Automatic annotation (TrEMBL):
Comp. bias intervals (Polar residues): 768-788
Ranges in a coiled coil: none
Region listing for Disordered, in residue ranges: 628-665, 768-807
Compositionally biased region (Low complexity): 652-665
Basic residues biased stretches: 791-805
SUPFAM superfamilies, per the entry: alpha/beta-Hydrolases
InterPro entries: AB_hydrolase_fold, CarbesteraseB, Neuroligin/BSAL
Residue ranges, compositional bias (Pro residues): 631-651
Keywords from the named record: Membrane, Transmembrane, Transmembrane helix
Homology family: Belongs to the type-B carboxylesterase/lipase family.
Pfam families on file: COesterase (PF00135)
Protein name: Carboxylesterase type B domain-containing protein
Residue ranges crossing the lipid bilayer per the database entry: 672-695
Taxonomic classification: Eukaryota, Metazoa, Ecdysozoa, Nematoda, Chromadorea
Source species of the chain: Pristionchus entomophagus
Length: 896
């Protein structure tokens, strides 16, 4: 009965009655749909072009919500004539627009309604997460009503919400005065809907703390702006997660390029600008905007729609789009997404998806089927460069041509040229901005609690690609992932009654995979949790075995490739189109830099060849000059965020969700302590190495001294004088053999010391032994004349024997060996002054008088043979003066 198919819910706004319906397949639970719930009052008359007001409550009545509300006024519908349309869009986009058009016939300014799809819960005690779908394609046309959310709600056990918001000139009429800008009325509609939904989600069994936004194309751009907007209540965010499909606010088409120019064009064509204002546009800039707005509010919606449709934006750009107003959009999206000011942006979990050729709909059908010529390629690239860039256009175009030319086959075919143009448009307008958005969201420069995932949907729907079977284009096109996410392949009515149709069994399996991923992300922020992948088909079994890692630098920007290969539809890859993304996000911005400050460059330098020749471009180009440029007030810079230290990152895994819980202050102290300990340990290790090096040097020096002493002991023991053998004094056999080590010390002394000092230390002294005889005629005596420290003189007197320059030391008898305990280290045992003989003689003469045994200067020697005394002709004062000289002390240290 009718009552059994109805569900009544009492909300804070009033009682609503919904209808229980069955989803597209029999094995899913039923869904209650509440269609046409108002969330804002009708923006008509004086409320037109202004922020939305909340819908009035209906607490004293019951509202039947079983039919769809009208769509918002479509001010930017594409060309509907097939002949003209096929020159500017693909056949797929043309067919989709004509399938959507019947559902857009009923249009009204009173269009701010939402549709809620609530499944019968399998677990009655659990609250359901909420998914809000922000329709897209373009800012000037579309509606939320045509998209059915029953299958996704039933399969994923989530609440699905679709809604309308003002479009084109009614929702994004940007205008600026001297102090502020206004024009984001469409965004205010979304904020109003989210505010109402957050307060009433619990009445429908939903979880108001688990709301996710999903958008594609222009809808995705709006969602990304809301992620960074302070209007979404930072203390109690209106939503927790976001899904962006082929769109972001960083795309060139996402923000209005010249809002003031479009506003004045519309005002002039509506006759709302006086002739005086046309002559002095500054009057409008300084406070005349409100008068123009009141004039435009008096016009009918049809009039405004007709005029707005005639205002065409340059190709690849938007005329009526969001602007920087300081409230909904406080600054440029690149600033709002940056690590310095993107805290709001990074608080939200993010999933991003893209098709293989998101720009497919931008090329004419004939070119897509048969390819394009080099001339057509050049026109398209020239138009892209002229509309997107202001400086160094020739350099940028040359770089693009070089980047996308197949140099292994420079004479490319028409289809190869077509593929290159598709890649250029996709990379510049969609892929590169999406990757920049992902990198900004997953940046590890600051701490964050959110998660980031990325997928490439490359599955081809066979029935759709049959029309272009011979085109050679392989992959998915614009918006191909939408029906798989919403569950259209599972519908029993696979015919033209549905917005999408023509699916096979593989498509149905892949649709269940996509709905599982999306519903899990809506619930937990992770596409693989909490519900495991079912195994109803081989497609699902394949994806169940693949772990989907997060997108970040630690995981090498990993992403999931879905359906590109029929044999292996689930693959995890890294760095999606990284070379081309680097070209558009790295090289091109450098080429586009204006140049050095203070250096004036003629404007003609930035012109492309044949700049003013219209037929050398493709589509509409940005006008040169035109109306006087009225400056837009610069947006206020957001406050500088506090410096935050990044907490330690967890080990990467496919489902890692929670970051470390340690505070940033504790992390800072821990880092400084670790650094201090590391430096201390390094210095300690260095000191230990230096100590061991010095210790080893000392030990080597000591070992060398001991080795030298042992060598001299061995020499003395082995070469002592034999008293039984008599040698002639002049015989070579009377000379002692050289010591084991070289006489380096003696030669050093001879070279360094002056002759006077050398003679004093090692002078020729007569020595006698009981077994040795010296001949007076063979002794060389030295007479020294010393005058220190000013100069030194010496004379040499030689005797008859020319064979001996100095007296040879007598060999020590083996029978007269003396202990060497008293000999200093480093002194030769045979030294006549400090050796064994000198010590023995000194000991033997202790009891005798020095004068009785010695006659200085004569030939008679005492019994004790005091051979160590200096010559008698050197005064004692000179000897004392010499011993105090620094050189003598240095030589003494060398000997010791």
């Amino acid at each position: 009965s009718g009552q059994e198919l109805s569900r009544t819910v009492n909300t804070g706004w009033g009682v609503v009655v919904g209808e229980l319906v069955s989803p597209g397949t029999n094995d899913l639970p039923p869904v209650t749909q509440y269609l046409g719930i108002p969330y804002g009052s009708a923006p008509v008359a004086s409320d037109r072009f202004n922020m939305v007001k909340s819908a009035p409550k209906w607490t004293h009545s019951t509202k039947e919500t079983k039919t769809l509300s009208p769509s918002c006024v479509q001010t930017g519908l594409p060309e509907l004539s097939e002949t003209k349309a096929m020159k500017m869009m693909s056949s797929q986009r043309f067919d989709f627009v004509h399938r959507l058009l019947p559902k857009l016939k009923i249009q009204s300014e009173d269009c701010l309604y939402m549709n809620i799809f609530v499944p019968e819960r399998l677990q009655s005690m659990s609250k359901l997460s909420v998914l809000v779908i922000v329709h897209g394609d373009e800012y000037g046309w579309g509606s939320g009503g045509p998209f059915n959310g029953t299958t996704l709600a039933s399969y994923g056990q989530i609440i699905v919400v679709t809604l309308n918001y003002r479009l084109g000139a009614f929702g994004f009429l940007g205008r600026c005065e001297s102090s502020s800008c206004r024009g984001n009325e469409g965004m205010s509609d979304l904020v109003s809907a989210l505010t109402m939904l957050k307060s009433t989600a619990g009445d429908f069994g939903g979880d108001q703390t688990s709301i996710t936004l999903l958008g594609w194309g222009s809808g995705a751009s709006l969602v990304s702006l809301l992620m960074a907007s302070p209007i979404t209540n930072p203390k109690d965010r209106l939503f927790k997660r976001a899904i962006l499909l082929d769109g972001t606010a960083l795309s060139p088409w996402a923000m209005a390029e010249d809002p003031q120019g479009a506003f004045l064009d519309l005002a002039e064509k509506l006759n709302c600008v006086t002739e005086e204002s046309k002559k002095t546009p500054s009057a409008l800039y300084n406070g005349g905007i409100d008068q123009v707005i009141r004039c435009m509010q008096d016009h009918s919606a049809e009039n405004i729609t007709r005029v707005a449709h005639s205002i065409q934006a340059p190709s690849f750009l938007s005329s009526f789009a969001p602007i920087i107003d300081g409230q909904f959009v406080p600054n440029k999206p690149s600033v709002l997404f940056s690590p310095q000011y993107g805290n709001l942006f990074r608080e939200v979990d993010l999933m991003v998806g893209t098709a293989s050729f998101p720009s497919h709909h931008m090329m004419g059908d004939e070119e897509l089927k048969n390819g394009i010529s080099q001339e057509k390629r050049n026109k398209i690239i020239r138009t892209l460069v002229r509309n997107l860039y202001k400086f160094h256009r020739n350099e940028i175009m040359a770089a693009i041509m070089n980047e996308y030319t197949d140099w292994t086959n420079p004479k490319e075919s028409s289809r190869a040229l077509r593929d290159a143009v598709l890649s250029i448009l996709s990379d510049s307008l969609f892929v590169s901005p999406l990757i920049r958005t992902l990198r900004a969201h997953s940046s590890d420069e600051t701490s964050r609690n959110s998660k980031t995932f990325f997928f490439h949907f490359g599955h081809e729907t066979r029935s759709w690609s049959a029309e272009q079977a011979n085109s050679g284009i392989r992959g998915s096109f614009s918006g191909d992932h939408i029906p798989y996410i919403l569950g259209y392949p599972l519908s029993r009515k696979d015919n033209d009654e549905n917005l999408y149709y023509g699916f096979d069994s593989d498509d149905r399996g892949l649709s269940r995979v996509m709905m599982n991923y999306v519903s899990n992300f809506v619930k937990s922020g992770d596409p693989q949790m909490p519900t495991k992948m079912s195994k109803q088909s081989g497609m699902e079994e394949t994806f169940a075995r693949v772990a989907w890692p997060q997108y970040n630098q630690m995981n090498r920007e990993a992403y999931l490739e879905i359906g590109v290969s029929r044999d292996n539809p689930a693959l995890v890859k890294n760095y999606y189109r990284n070379a081309h993304v680097g070209f558009w996000s790295g090289l091109v911005p450098q080429l586009h830099a204006a140049g050095k400050e203070g250096v004036t460059v003629p404007e003609e330098h930035h012109f492309l060849p044949e700049y003013f020749k219209a037929d050398s471009f493709y589509g509409r180009v940005r006008p040169f000059g035109g109306r006087s440029n009225m400056p837009i007030p610069p947006p206020p810079m957001p406050p500088t965020p506090p410096t935050m230290v990044k907490p330690p990152q967890p080990t990467p895994s496919s489902s890692s969700s929670d970051p470390p819980s340690s505070s940033t202050v504790a992390s800072s102290y821990s880092t400084m302590l670790s650094l201090t300990v590391a430096i201390g340990c390094g210095l300690l290790a260095l000191n230990i190495c230096v100590f061991f090096g010095m210790y080893r040097g000392c030990m080597q020096k000591r070992a060398g001294k001991k080795k030298l002493q042992l060598q001299y002991q061995t020499y003395s023991a082995n070469h002592g004088h034999n008293p039984d053998v008599q040698y002639s004094i002049n015989s070579p056999l009377a000379l002692p053999p050289p010591p084991p080590s070289s006489n380096h010390s003696q030669s050093l002394m001879d070279d360094v010391l002056p002759p006077t000092i050398n003679g004093i230390i090692c002078g020729s002294l007569p020595r006698s032994n009981g077994n040795s005889h010296y001949s007076r005629g063979t002794v060389s005596s030295h007479t020294y004349t010393t005058s220190l420290p000013h100069h030194q003189q010496h004379q040499h007197h030689h005797h008859e024997q020319p064979h001996h320059k100095s007296i040879q030391e007598p060999l020590l008898s083996a029978s007269q060996k003396t202990s060497i305990a008293g000999i200093r280290a480093g002194v030769s045992p045979t030294c006549p002054r400090h050796g064994r003989t000198a010590i023995a003689n000194a000991a033997a003469s202790r009891g005798n008088s020095l004068a009785s045994g010695v006659t200085l200067g004569g030939s008679t020697m005492g019994r004790d043979h005091m051979g160590s005394l200096p010559p008698s002709n050197i005064p004692i004062e000179e000897i004392q003066s010499f011993l105090a000289h620094p050189i003598a002390q240095f030589v003494r240290l060398l000997i010791e």
